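Example record used in the benchmark description.
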Amino acid sequence: MKRHRARALVCALALTATTAAVTPGAATARPAAAAVQGGRIPDHFVGLSIEWSLVERYMNPTARPAFVNLLRNLHTGILRIGGSSQDQMPFDATAANTDRVITPEDLAYVRATLDAAGEPSGHGRGKPRWGTVLGTAMSPPTDTRPWVGPEHARTFLTQGVGPAFPGEAARKIAGIELGNEPDLSYGSNLNRYLSDLATYADPSVSGGFPVIAPNTSEDILPWTTLADPAAATRYFHDWPQILDTGAPFMTQRSGTFGAYASDHFYPLARTCAGKPYRCPSTTALLSDEHLAGLDYEVYTHATEAAGHGLGYRLEETSTAANRGADGVSNVAASATYALSLMFHLACPRPPDRPETNAGCTTAAKGVNFHNAEVRAFFHPEEGNAYYNAIDYDPTEAMGAPTAAPLYYALLFFARLAQDTSGLRPVSVAADADRTPEAWQLDTESGERRLFVINKADHPVTVTVPLRGTEAEVDRMSPYDPDGGAPALDATHVRIDGRQVAADGTWSGFRPVRVRAIGHRTTLTLAAGEAAAVTSPRRR
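Model output (structure tokens):
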């Protein structure tokens, strides 16, 4: 079987009604719609988001080699430097480099990291392998932050970004992100936000760099609340007006990675007093209810962005707001959730119109999983946020960052789903009370691949049809180092039984070859486990 792992070209099994016979006691995959051609998952779909206060922790000369290896494992992506810290940390071209101020040294660290992660290749369609989003402050100034204003943003670009990314290197900049979560910083004063957006996005302030907005968040709400125009949803329903203001500036300076609007989404929160919907648990994290909220937000805002000539990216997300929840965000369930989330971003199906977007033609162009400190900015020594995909070294050594459970979902998706076409959801009949989620993909080389994700807390058996006489199966699995059975709350994750090394390198996939019996094979997925089944191209 011809393999194309290095180029991350992937696909799914061809699932037809004539071959999808049901085996007693098992689940069988069936096509969602025979005529659906499916959508595309572009390169640079995966990404990471890191607070400005942690640039030294991830990208100082000691930490950088391992961090670069972790980026290289994913082949292509977008590294966003921002979050709430961008509105709290001033840029100062002459200040000593600490985690309380943004300096030219920070920007040099980012540039060196992108350079080391790889230059353009055929796989990246001529783009840099890794691009970056650089966030700058845009919020009402306060007594503690009087420096916030257009002049500060202009200085950040002319004395920081410009010198670090001169000439051709500017192609690595996906955009300058103007402010973080303006629905919080501007509150009910939408008019002031729109006025500031127009001022900051103007070339007199942001120069020739691409700009990204609105970078909004929403309270953690059921989709039915989001769908109610009269409900208190912060800026959710103001996107058309916001994009009316921002899109003319954004489309004029699209850059290497295209012009796009950005959004944030968190399904849960660390604290949930009086708001049960926000309360964190592995069951809630993997619930269809919270994914329905994601589908509704992404489909609505991606549609509005497209109507303004823009793409759409979920620029910040993870498992639970307020830096994640212990026992939920830092266990195997987080990887199961993240893998499912990426497919839902690539093919959002609005819950009020489930038949809409069956062809996956409306979609996000990518996602950035956020990384922060566990409690508060400027205290990295206290440890990692529970939701981090990559954990930094909190000690004074500031050594090698390491892969957390959620990182394995990024690796599995980046290498086996990113840069493909023909995405479509697949119906699966289960032998249990929780139906596995399934997605089908096509590769340029003609292989086919089916992803099946078991989000239940117990094993599920699935029978899938094969095109040939054999196939290869890769698995992303919860792992208990003490030898216990795979479970959603396992503290580790493995892919094909392998882990990412301490230096950030990945030794590669080790799929198991399976034989077809009657043009199908049967798989049993452990709790929280996902499988990618690849069959050869037709001869």
